[in-house]
Amino acid sequence: EPAGKTDYRKRTGHVINQYFGLVADGFVTKADIKTVSALGCYGMSAITAVTAQNTVGVTDVAGIDPGIVAAQIDAVFDDIRPLAVKTGMLYSSEVVDAVAGSLGRHHAGNLVVDPVMISTSGSRLISADAVEVMVHRLFPLAVLVTPNLQEAVALTGESDPSAQAQWFFSHGVDSVLLKGGDSSDSRSKTDLFFRKYLPPVSLVSPAIDTVNTHGTGCTLSAAIVSFLARGLDLDSAVAAAKEYISAALRSGANYVIGSGHGPVDHFHALRHDI
Questions:
Q1: What b/e sequence results for 199-234 when a residue is b if at least 16 CB atoms lie within 10 Å of its CB, and e otherwise?
Q2: Catalytic residue of the set 179, 189, 242, 252
Q3: In the beta sheet, which residues pair with residue 176?
Q4: Chain Cα centroid distance, residue 63
Q5: Phi-psi region of 91 (alpha: psi -120 to 50; beta: other; left: phi over 0)
Q6: Catalytic residue at 48?
Q7: SS3 call for 22
Q8: 59 in catalytic set
Q9: Residue 250: left (phi > 0), alpha (psi -120 to 50), or beta?
């Protein structure tokens, strides 16, 4: 190696540059990258849309040209092949098609699809025709799909979790995590992990009294991708991610950031070690 330069990819152990992950998103990309970084991975992104938003809500959305989205993904795979990939807000059918085409062409592994559809403030973040393309082109490529309660109902037309899971299975999905963080239960929050041909698993954590919940669902899916990149199997990655988001919520519960829903404390473990 040249003097003064180190190729971190050659190092052994849990170093930040050892695990590579790609995020294709346009909603809370910064939260995704913070999560990936906090969990010892190197995050790369392909921006699919630009939003004008703060802790109160989303005021405007603009999509990125699908050709540019595909070029971003190609640039990442041509240089630093990701060990895991997450998609989030994809905005339009053309963008979904570009993302699915690029990921399929590069034979992306460990793909987690977070079907971001509606913001907490009620803003629509994806077109109806884009949802159809996502279901038919992107879902079959995924190792896991992670809808929240609203998204699961909107996608499946079902209110029963078991019926929702069967709908996903019938659309080429082998594993689905139904995120329950936005439930009305004030005592606990339960995520339901359904795997084809296996019994469902309930992941339960105490409810945390806080308004700082901005980006929690996206953070959870980004954590799953990070643990997959680090070599955990899917079951272990989901369980570890649940622990991470619960700790991030607890640590950031009393922060005052903005006048609406503030963020979780993504770097809680690092900060407590300082």
A1: eeeebebeebeeebbbbbbbbbbbbbbbbbbbebeb
A2: 179
A3: 145, 194
A4: 19
A5: left
A6: no
A7: strand
A8: no
A9: alpha
3-39 confidence digits (pLDDT tens): 444 343 333 233 333 466 766 665 667 889 999 999 9
Q: Does 215 participate in catalysis according to the annotation?
A: yes
Residue 205: its H or E element: strand 198-206
- Say what percent of the chain tops pLDDT 90: 67
CA distances to 49, 51, 248, 250, 259 from 263, rounded to whole Å, are: 20, 16, 9, 11, 11
Is 41 noted as a catalytic residue in this protein? no
Global pTM reads 0.89
Residue spans of alpha helices (H) in the chain: 29-38, 66-79, 93-105, 128-133, 149-156, 161-170, 216-229, 234-251, 268-273
State the virtual CA torsion across 39, 40, 42, 44 in degrees, nearest 10. Answer: 0
